[in-house]
Amino acid sequence: xxxxxxxxxxxxxxxxxxxxxxxxxxxxxxxxxxxxxxxxxxxxxxxxxxxxxxxxxxxxxxxxxxxxxxxxxxxxxxxxxxxxxxxxxxxxxxxxxxxxxxxxxxxxxxxxxxxxxxxxxxxxxxxxxxxxxxxxxxxxxxx
Length: 143
Known about the structure:
- The chain has 143 residues and is α+β, with helices and mostly antiparallel strands.
- The protein is built from three helices and seven strands, in the order H-H-E-E-E-E-E-E-E-H.
- The strands form two sheets. Strands 1-2-3-4 form a four-stranded antiparallel β-sheet, covered by helices on one side. A three-stranded antiparallel β-sheet has the order 5-6-7, with helices on one face.
């Protein structure tokens, strides 16, 4: 009987410890999927990718998984979720963009970056069309 009481006490203590750790992780916001909440968050991420990049036009994914940013000289940066972080790339004329059920699917020539699908709403078509005006790798623009 004493052994059963000890086992139940040990089980109860373990469950309380697990619940306490789960509550601590939730309070610390650990394990939450990162999201781009607003244009300012996108600007900060763009600054991390390319110091000095100052966007004048920003399109945010409806669910915060990514963003497209354009600077005054017409350069376009893609920021997308990658695991628990965000990664970004400057786009050039090699990028392929297509619309799929109102979402913009962006394929980069860099296989390791993969494709990104952004739900930009009505702005998706405008951004897809703008990819035709992107500069090549050397910085030349073909319009």
